[in-house]
Amino acid sequence: MSAIVRKKDHSAREHRSDGPRLDDPRVVRTRAAVVDAARTLFLRQGYSGTTMEEIAALAGITKRTMYNNYADKAALFTQIVGDFMAFAEAFAQGLPQEFADDVTAATLAVTLDDLARRMAIAILRPEVIALRRLLIRESGAFPNLGAEYFERAPRQVIEALAKEFASLDKAGVLHLSDARRAAAQFAYLVVGEPLDRAMLLGAIPPEDEVIACARDGVRTFLARYADRGARD
Predict the structure, then answer these.
(1) What's the CA gap between 169 and 146, in Å, rounded?
(2) How far apart are CA 112 and CA 173, in angstroms?
(3) For 103-143, how does the pLDDT look when each residue is reduced to its tens digit (9 = 90+)?
(4) Each residue of 51-92: pLDDT tens digit?
(5) How far apart are CA 175 and CA 63, in angstroms?
(6) Which of the residue ranges 109-118, 142-151, 216-225 would you say has the lowest mean pLDDT?
(7) Alpha carbons 198 and 209: distance in angstroms, whole number
(8) pLDDT tens digit sequence for 180-217
């Protein structure tokens, strides 16, 4: 009988040592508060300038609770960058929907205008610019994270664009010699100059200026790769 009791006590201790489950609503709320606080502080004052104690204070939790959920600051930073990567991946994966309907020479300009507008606004968000600048600043501490961000964000968008442009070339709507190069040119024409300004100066142009730049970029792209009837 005593052996059975000891076995039960041991099992109970093992169960208690496991701690709360990750899908426990309290844990979910706590981890969300930590991520929000860490994102705010990292983007505001940098990775090196932020402490776990500051994150815990902003999240409204104790330092012990903080470390029960996240082993260290690097794990938090990596997760936050991963969240931004996931947003970019979702954008890239949604690009085929832009071309779900048959795009013709008559509808090409409207399709690309809408795509360019949404693309420019998505890239030139303050938090995205702040993250990009932060990744550059912290490249010494996280040498692989910048490369991963490039692969999962800008490069995926370019590759998705290239695939759709290649289909339009095959259909005779665009006339390309290199779909990937055309996709890269499209991206720079749409958002390159405002992005450079934001990255180097920290100043994002007004939205109407961003949209105007994107639309002019589309016109330049069409002048190079589309028939005259598709340029208007």
Answers:
(1) 32
(2) 12
(3) 899 999 999 999 999 999 989 999 889 888 988 888 888 88
(4) 999 999 999 999 898 888 888 899 898 888 888 888 888 877
(5) 59
(6) 142-151
(7) 13
(8) 999 999 999 999 999 999 999 988 999 999 999 999 99
The DSSP call for residue 48 is T
Encoding tokens for residue 133? 């600048």
List pLDDT tens digits, range 78-87. 888 888 888 8
For residue 86, give both structure tokens: 């996931």
Residue type, 73: K
Task: Report d(CA 35, CA 61) in Å as an integer.
Answer: 12
Q: Which residue has the tokens 């500051």?
A: 54
Burial class (CB in 10 A: 0-12, 13-18, 19+), 221: buried
Which residues share a beta bridge with 174?
A: 226
Domains and CATH numbers, the chain: 16-69 (1.10.10.60), 79-230 (1.10.357.10)
Residue 226 forms beta bridges with which residues?
174
User: In which residue are the tokens 């776990």 written?
Assistant: 52
Question: What one-character DSSP code corresponds to residue 12?
Answer: H
Q: What angle do CA 221, 125, 156 make, to 5 degrees?
A: 55
DSSP string, 55-104: HHHHHT--HHHHHHH-S-HHHHHHHHHHHHHHHHHHHHHHHHHHTSSPP-
Q: The pTM is what?
A: 0.77
The tokens for 71 are 């082993």
Contact 43, 55 (CB under 8 A): no
